[in-house]
Amino acid sequence: MSRNILITGGAGFIGSHVVRLFVTKYPDYRIVNLDKLTYAGNLANLKDIEQAENYSFERCDICDYEQVLAIFRKYRIDGVIHLAAESHVDRSIKDPFTFARTNVMGTLSLLQAARVCWDGDWAGKLFYHISTDEVYGALQFDGTLFTETTKYDPHSPYSASKASSDHFVRAFHDTYGMPTLVTNCSNNYGPYQFPEKLIPLFINNIRHGKPLPVYGRGENVRDWLYVVDHARAIDTIFHRGKVGDTYNIGGFNEWRNIDLIRVVIRTVDRLLGRSEGASEHLITYVTDRAGHDLRYAIDSRKLKDELGWEPSLQFEEGIEKTVRWYLDNQEWMDNITSGEYKKYLQIVGQPRPVVRGDCDFSFGSSLFVLAVLRGYVLPPPLGEKAGPDFCCGCGASFCRTVAVRTAVVLQGILSECFSAFLSRRCFEAAVRHAVRCRQASPTPRRSAARRSS
Ligand code: NAD
Ligand code: DAU
């Protein structure tokens, strides 16, 4: 074998694509996949290449320094592509310790094993660390992009742990002269992604008619890259990147979450033979992620200018391929979502729906429709001249009686329907609730005046 390459996290989402690419493209390289097989690691992701002669798998925790060192020695590892990590932001908010342990201490353990094994003989060696654009923090809606010189400003425990591991990698380069490379990539999508992440989660939920939990207002922006293009970039940089350097990898493909979600909905609906957009009613606005970064966008011009890499797929094509893959591989999805993941969902609980003014109707409109359906006679808006039903007769443009009676009407509606508002999408839930109540016991038309008296 001309090279012995250790790929960590090769049973995960991106790692499995990198392993597949290297095993098939470089038959004269030995590819050793080191993975602990956490909930996110799945050897089924590599079924098609697991019998390849140049492929080996080692189940190992990167934090287990002795075992990592033994693997380095066993295979005479000369190159590392390090992807193993805890990768989900929401989990890091619940359990930051695990992220610090794996992402920081695990990376340090690998660096130290490489240093001890290579023992100052750096010729032909490379430690390539896969990082994320999240270490740069968040951008405003101002068209700026993360470049390789953007100051680190991580906000979540996940990104803080990744930032820390990046610093350790650079420290090993600067202190010991270890040949290292770091790349920071934007959001990946494609086959084999664990369905806790936005795109596979939503594809699966749309298929099964389950709610689509949109954090906050769905206005956050991410820059999406097809995973196979990330793997191609890693191949290019591993072989031709400038040692000691950093490259950003991104798709120049920014999407507001809610717009992306609508594309996914239309694609799934169409491929399932439903009318496009039929599943939009599943959109459920839920409590926002704590510290939710507003916008990520990567400037990957350096990678294009220096090494000639560009994304190969247009987003529409990538999303179509992705949706098709998940729909055709329901068994893969079922296997993943049955065991550990179910337990995790029970522990963290489901996100809580919130009443939002940005569903089909505003909160105000919902109240209005609800009030009419429930048979209330509404007072005119404050400031408008009130009719005899509501005005005390003062004739003033701001009638105190109108104000008080408006409040009473609102209070009545709110207390009747509060639980329906809270537990479902505001407009639809309110209307459904009102219709049900009306069918159960037709309400005589009543005015605020009569009701309050
Ligand atoms: P993933 O969660 O799908 O896979 C992570 C893999 O690492 C799994 O196979 C898991 O078993 C393994 N692993 C976890 N802890 C381990 C440990 N202690 N020892 C050994 N193996 C362990 O992650 P992913 O989305 O494929 O991300 C891979 C890498 O790319 C991560 O470093 C992540 O930070 C980075 N990254 C991801 C994205 C993205 O959009 N997914 C974007 C940029 C960078
Ligand atoms: O930017 C690169 C990063 O991209 C990687 O480093 C991370 O490993 C990877 O998980 C991803 O992080 P995000 O937090 O951006 O990905 P996620 O799929 O979790 O969320 C994408 C966006 O969608 C984000 O703004 C949060 C939102 N979201 C996510 C989920 C899971 C929702 O609105 N609802 C959801 O249920």
Question: In brief, what are we looking at here?
Answer:
By secondary structure, this protein is of the alpha/beta class. The longest helix is centred in the C-terminal third of the chain and has 24 residues. It starts with a strand and ends with a helix.
How are the SSEs ordered, and which strands pair?
Layout: E1 3-8, H1 13-25, E2 29-35, E3 55-59, H2 65-75, E4 79-82, H3 89-94, H4 96-118, E5 126-132, H5 157-176, E6 180-185, E7 187-189, H6 198-207, E8 212-215, E9 221-226, H7 227-240, E10 246-249, E11 254-256, H8 257-271, E12 283-286, H9 301-307, H10 315-328, H11 330-338, H12 340-348, H13 363-373, E13 376-377, H14 400-423, H15 426-440, E14 446-447, H16 448-452
Parallel strand pairs: 1-2, 1-4, 2-3, 4-5, 5-6, 6-10, 7-9, 8-12, 13-14
Antiparallel strand pairs: 9-11
The structure holds nicotinamide-adenine-dinucleotide and 2'deoxy-thymidine-5'-diphospho-alpha-D-glucose (DAU).
The site of 2'deoxy-thymidine-5'-diphospho-alpha-D-glucose (DAU) has 19 residues, from α6 and β8.
Explain this structure to me?
The N and C termini lie far apart (91 Å). Strand 5, helix 5 and strand 6 (180-185) form a beta-alpha-beta unit. The strands form four sheets. A seven-stranded parallel beta sheet has the order 3-2-1-4-5-6-10, with helices on both faces. The chain contains 16 helices and 14 strands. The chain is an alpha/beta fold. The chain has helices at 13-25, 65-75, 89-94, 96-118, 157-176, 198-207, 227-240, 257-271, 301-307, 315-328, 330-338, 340-348, 363-373, 400-423, 426-440, 448-452, and strands at 3-8, 29-35, 55-59, 79-82, 126-132, 180-185, 187-189, 212-215, 221-226, 246-249, 254-256, 283-286, 376-377, 446-447. The model is unreliable at 356-362, 419-425 and 442-453 (pLDDT under 50). The chain is globular, with a radius of gyration of 28 Å. Helix 14 crosses helix 15 (426-440). It binds nicotinamide-adenine-dinucleotide and 2'deoxy-thymidine-5'-diphospho-alpha-D-glucose.
